[in-house]
Structures are given as C-alpha cells and as structure tokens.
Write a structure and sequence with these properties.
single chain; alpha+beta; Butyryl-CoA Dehydrogenase, subunit A, domain 2; five-stranded mixed β-barrel; two-stranded antiparallel ribbon; globular; binds flavin-adenine dinucleotide
C-alpha cells in the first residue's frame, strides 16, 4: 500500500495561503502560538501517522477486536497510541493551558486529526472520542467531575464515549428506556442497554467513561425527559477502581472501521451500576448535541481523510500497473496507464473529492493523466 496518505503541501496551502491560519494568534487565547508552533504540531502528527498508525492499518483491519470472556481485546498498538496522544497533548489540544490543554486553534487541531485519520481511521477514533467526552464534562460537569475524570482522559489512561443509542432507539432518542433512579447517596442507579457504542470497552485503556443518556424515574415523556450521566465502567472506591456493573454483551464490526470495537452494553444487571448526573436533570439531549455536532464534523473530516488515503493508494496502484497502449499506438511500459480520458476524469474526481477546493491544481509530475499538467510536489 502507498506510503503517502495525504498531501502535506496541500494541507499547508489551505491553512496558510487560503485561510491564513496564523492570523488567529492575534487573539489572546492563541497568543502563545505562531506559524512555527502550528508547523510543529503538523509535523508531529505526520510522524505519529507515518511511524505509529499507518504501519498498523492493514493488521488492524485484518484482526478486528475480539470479544473474549466478556471483555474486548483490541490491537496492542491502541494502548501505545492512547499513551502517545495523552503525553503529546493531542487529546486535550484545543482546551486551555490551566486544564492541561494546548490552546491550539481548532483549525490546526482539526488538520492534525485529518492527518491521523488518513493514516489509520479506526485507530484515530479512540483518542478523539475521548476529547469529545471530556469536553462534555468540561462544559456541563461540576468542578469535582472535571477534577475526577478529565486529567485521566486527557492523559489517555481512560477512554471516553458517547452512549446514546439503544436496541429500540437510534434516530428516535425520545424512546430510550435506560433509567436512572435517584438515591440518597448522591448517585443514580442506572439500568438498561446501549448498542453501537464506539470504543465502549477495550483493553487499550484502564477505564472507560461513558457520557450516557438515560431517563430519571418520573421524568417527562420524550426528549424533554432525557438526562446525561457519567457512567464509568469502573468507579473509584477508596482509591481503587472497582467494577461499576457495566457489562459488555457483545461487539459489532463495521466496514472501514474494523480496528475499533462497537459495543453493546448492559448496565445494572446486578443492581449496582452508579451514574452521576451531569448538569441539570432533563437537559441531557441538549448537552449531548455538543458532542454530536463535533462528531458530525469529525465524521466528515474522517471521510475526507479516508478518501485522501484511498486516492494515494489507487494512484500508486495505477502507476505500478502498465496496461493498454498509448494514444500513438505503442505498447505501455512506463509510465503506466492512467491516461485515457475516462480514467483521467476518474482520477480528477477522486483527487478533487479527497483534496478539496484546490481541485483545479495540476497533478504530480509523475502522473501521466493528460488533464492535469505538472506541478511537482503534489
Ligand atoms: C460508525 C458508527 C459509530 C457509532 N457510534 C456510536 C456511539 O459511539 N454511540 C452511540 O450512542 N451510537 C453510535 N452509533 C449509532 C448511531 O448513533 C445510530 O446508528 C444512529 O443514531 C441511527 O440510528 P439507527 O442505526 O438505529 O438507524 P434508524 O434510526 O433505524 O434509521 C434507519 C434509517 O431510517 C431513517 N429514519 C429513522 N427515523 C426516521 C423518521 N422518523 N423519518 C424518516 N426517516 C427516518 C434514518 O434516516 C435512516 O436512514 C454509531 C453508528 C455508526 C454507524
């Protein structure tokens, strides 16, 4: 498979020449940054993508997560990646210095996510789901919740998830039946089933923190009765992590996303699943829209990233496979085949869908497609 998965030149062209990203450093929040620090972030993302993530892409695709004795086993690189992303500040990158973040503009952290997603999409979802879940706690949780959960999530020790979907409620979240019963101990007793929860259980992290939607007993019907709770897979008791009665019932594999487990979870089988209310009761869906909207952007970014990697893989394949004959009639040897009008159109279309608005840019010097003149470095 091709070594190349994105065009760094195009990414930098977009960031610096089209969007003038360094201009944002005029705002106090980003004042510590500069073009140099942006370049450093992009270079480091390229290094992680090239050296850690891309080499494991095929292996992770061929060996999806396994469900063994009620636990989910994932590729061994996941633990290393979470650690690397934690230590490198990637999980908390957009957040403020005092919360352990880097105050990196979203445009730059998004560009870095694009690089990592193009290198290995399913590996990239582990840290970036954690970012979204931690952001929910930062936005709507209490100071104690922030202190208890966010540092461990930013460090990559604990995985974060969004746990909304249920077997009978996908689009129609109004119909969720997971319940949260108040106790006089400050927590809620949670009971129910969740399905399709990305990274909902795995051995690449020491704990999984679910940002879960549930209905408090007696809540109004429909979406107006949905609350958000933190439901840890393991809860802290006397300084020890103990089981919180969140059990994995099974996993699913998804095409194009086979390196990450999609889990079915069962809470409260032993009446001992504790949830901690985030913000106010019945406002859970409104809170969750923060993460859903971020996920929508990330899914779009991921799709463009996968298209970019697919473009370079198919370009390399086409260039290594001489076939057909040249227009002048001589047999094809080198350079190879992508030269007929229809294949040129196809290449241009793939190139434009994976590379964005600079689609009019000419192609790499070694590409023989007649529609795209030479622009070295593309
Ligand atoms: C890759 C992937 C990762 C996911 N990760 C998570 C996760 O981490 N956490 C989580 O909670 N969930 C996750 N999900 C689940 C996701 O949230 C649901 O798939 C989504 O909400 C849609 O629900 P559904 O699959 O049950 O489809 P359905 O709700 O059954 O929808 C099926 C089709 O019917 C259409 N439809 C539904 N209702 C109506 C209507 N009223 N009118 C007209 N058309 C309608 C939909 O548009 C769709 O085309 C993930 C899904 C995928 C694909």
């Amino acid at each position: 498979m091709a070594d190349k998965f994105i065009s760094e030149r195009n990414l930098r062209f977009l960031l610096y020449e089209v969007f003038d990203a360094p201009k944002i450093t005029q705002y106090p929040y980003y004042a510590e940054h500069s073009r140099e620090s942006f370049d450093m972030a992009l270079d480091t993302a390229m290094k992680i993508g090239k050296n850690l993530m891309k080499p494991k892409l095929t292996e992770m695709d061929k060996n999806p997560p396994e469900f063994v004795n009620g636990k989910v086993k994932v590729h061994s690189m996941v633990r290393g990646l979470m650690k690397e992303c934690g230590e490198g500040g990637w999980i908390g990158a957009p957040f403020s210095f005092d919360l352990g973040g880097q105050q990196l503009p979203l445009m730059i952290s998004g560009a870095c996510r694009f690089i990592l997603s193009a290198a290995n999409y399913s590996a990239s979802v582990y840290p970036f789901l954690t970012t979204g879940a931690a952001h929910l706690i930062l936005s709507f949780g209490s100071p104690e919740m922030i202190e208890s959960y966010v540092p461990k999530m930013f460090s990559g020790e604990w995985q974060g998830t969004m746990a909304m979907t249920e077997p009978q409620a996908g689009s129609s979240l109004a119909d969720i039946t997971t319940t949260a019963e108040p106790t006089d101990q400050g927590y809620y007793r949670v009971k129910g089933q969740k399905i399709f929860i990305s990274a909902g259980d795995h051995d690449g992290a020491d704990n999984v923190i679910h940002l879960m939607l549930a209905k408090i007993k007696g809540a109004p019907a429909g979406v107006k009765g949905i609350s958000m709770l933190i439901v840890p897979q393991k809860r802290l008791e006397n300084g020890q992590l103990v089981s919180n009665d969140v059990n994995t019932a099974g996993i699913y594999h998804k095409l194009g996303y086979r390196g990450a487990p999609i889990t079915q979870l069962s809470m409260g089988e032993n009446d001992d699943c504790r949830g901690y209310l985030v913000g106010e009761p019945h406002k859970g869906l409104m809170y969750m829209f923060q993460m859903m909207n971020e996920a929508r952007i990330d899914v779009g970014l991921g799709a463009a990233a996968i298209a970019s990697a697919a473009y370079y893989a198919s370009l390399e394949y086409a260039q290594q496979r001489p076939q057909g004959s040249r227009e002048e009639g001589s047999p094809a040897k080198t350079p190879p085949s992508p030269r007929s009008p229809s294949s040129s159109m196809r290449i241009l279309r793939e190139c434009s869908s994976s590379s964005g608005p600079w689609w009019k840019a000419p192609c790499r010097s070694s590409c023989s497609a007649p529609c795209m003149p030479t622009w070295p470095g593309f």
